[in-house]
Amino acid sequence: MYNRENDNKPKKNNPRNNRDVDDKDKETQIEEIESIKQMGAPNMPVNSSKEIQCITIIGEIEGHFVGNPQKKSTKYEHIIPMLYSVEENPEIKGVLVILNTVGGDVEAGLAMAELLNSISKKVVTLVLGGSHSIGVPLATAGDYSFIAPTATMVVHPIRTNGLVIGVNETFEYFKKMQERITQFIIRTSNIERGKLEKLMNSRDELVSDVGSVLIGKEAVQCGLIDEVGGLKEALSKLKLLIKEDENKE
């Protein structure tokens, strides 16, 4: 028989349910704290579109050796698995690479550039702020490239610091490394070899160094970058490339 008095009795809390709620609250708090630490603001918006993956390459490109902990860095062991995941994900149709880098490890930067150039997804690169040194082949690695009007690209020959063994084999190694970078840039952009080598060896623009500084439109005029533009133009171009690729199928 139904007993009305049961309605007035206080209901016992299920300790398991309370524990689940507490765990979820703690997870939410941890996520917000991490968001604040990484992004400077809580509740960062999540990209609802799954067909475009955005990858940022910022600061110094860190390679086989750990960089200065006081500097911002992009670790190639993070970017390479991310690009592999993008290639394996059928929902992702394109990649937007945003660059603001001072350069860094040559081997790591070139490896990332080769991987970007070899994936089947459409890739658009956007230079914001700067893309110097090994950042140049990273900027040219995509299907199409943009540079902001005030962004810069520093083009110079390969160099190193620290102990160098002064033998012919060392210089031959540098020459081969430089040739790898030069060949990649020529292959992935519209610049001619003679023009690129002239920019690299210019003595008029950099203090105590050789090379050239290209600002916005200058990088387009010499053939390194395809177009001057920002985020809006880069996204529009990437969506257009994805649509053209789908129409071919």
From TrEMBL:
Residues 1-10, 17-29 have a biased composition (Basic and acidic residues). Keywords: Hydrolase, Protease. InterPro entries: ClpP (IPR001907), ClpP/crotonase-like_dom_sf (IPR029045), ClpP/TepA (IPR023562). Residues 1-29 are annotated as: Disordered. GO terms for biological process: proteolysis. One of its GO terms (molecular function) is ATP-dependent peptidase activity. SUPFAM superfamilies: ClpP/crotonase. Belongs to the peptidase S14 family. This is ATP-dependent protease ClpP, protease subunit.
